[in-house]
Amino acid sequence: MSSHIYLLGIDVGTSSCKTVLFNSMGRVICTAAVEYPTLIEKDGWAEQEPETWWLSVRKTIGDVLKSSGVKPSDIAAVGIDSQGSAVVPLDEEFNPLGKAIIWMDRRSEPECRWIDKNVGQDLLTKINGNKNDSSNFGPKLRWIKQKEPERYKKTYKFSSAGGFLAHRLTDVLSFSITEGGLSQLFDIEKGVWSDELVKAFELDYEKLPEIYSPFHIIGKVTKRASKETGLLEGTPVIAGAMDATACALGCGVMGNNDTFISGGTVTCVGVCTGRPLRNPKFHSYHHIVPGNWIHAAGVDFGGGSYRWYRDNLLSSGNFENLSYELLDLEAEAAGVGANKLLFMPYMVGQRTPIWDNNTRGLFFGISPAHTRKHFTRAILEGNAYGVNFILKLFEEMGIRAANVKLTGGCSKGHVWREIFADVLAQNISIPTITEVTALGIAVTAGVGAGVYNSFDEALRNVKYEEVNCNSSNAEKYGKLYKVFSGLYPLLKDKLQELADI
Fold first, then answer.
1. Are 399 and 269 in contact (CB under 8 A)?
2. pLDDT tens digits, one per residue of 254-268
3. Entry pTM
4. CA-to-CA distance for 353 and 344, rounded, in angstroms?
5. Residue 49 DSSP SS3
6. CB atoms near residue 475 (< 10 Å)
């Protein structure tokens, strides 16, 4: 295969847009990124400007094309992955009707209570397979209908973030099947909007966009989009996917029980299965790879706790002498188990699998013998314990994590890698490429455009570093994990009392 064929992967996350140009061998040619803000106008709200996403996509595409020197005519296809559960109301001209409501937004809690009473979790589990939660697409639509009826009435279609951006490139509106599970309006097995759930939510079916497979070419770059981005008019664009599924694919998670751990602000854990599990403890949605589903949970401030610790407890803002590399060395010096100091990482409330907005962090077992290095290591170990708790829940369902891949910030330092392998008591693999999410959506575009015959072919050149479990360390961690796993159940009622004050 010619290395002069290129694919463009655009990753639109919660905090930034990253565009990565790959050659057909999966090698990164050029990367560009732009950060953007989340707007918090009221307590529990979280919004972003769709036009800011589009400006970020335009800029990063332009930067990549300029820096790489690659001819736009050599780009075979474009794919966009995006943050899940964002709601973008569009008018008949497909212009946004105000700000997008993103996944972090919790304003639809009253609508979730209405759904619990009038729809019921049993029906949601049976059809959609996911827990009723205000982060999801459906409750947000109902909130708009109830609280902003004029905006609801003016909405021609409700779009996802990725669907909105793909429309800007092609003038074709689409909704990726990978986003369907977290809509609460979707048949998780059939991969279609559920008439029964749409009616039960008292929403209008015609306001929902058409569903496509991630690798389906929905259209081509228009003349207008070509002028705005620098892409060649006529370049194929796929429907795209939710970022978690693109990450899973980029890590090589394609087979039954294959598992990925993506450590950023949220440490996301996903397991691939050949059937939907319909367990409301976990998020469940279609994988990019046909015939597979991803079941996911997370430690919602797992990686974020490390940055919080550095920025707030160890520094007044000068990080020159507080690099993560230095902290990693401190953690290494503390030794396995941090001298029996435990950290519960649930600092900001916890979605799946605990589903408790009242959770908070905890250092447990502090003694005068503990120094900064022990606190540093305890934070790293606490994140791994949280992941292990998730994988133990999967085991209770008969699913044993296999071929575990670790990526993101948690995979960069050798200490945290080793902690994960030892706490999970199994060997893990680290993709040598850091841009796995952009790679996942880029190769999806390549499959859609016929550059590759299969996903296996598309990812054949991805290399991994192996991290082996130390059985002696794993035995020590097993004992400490038993203590860790008992902390939240003991504290649950007290956390509620604290929240009520």
1. no
2. 999 999 999 888 899
3. 0.93
4. 15
5. coil
6. 12
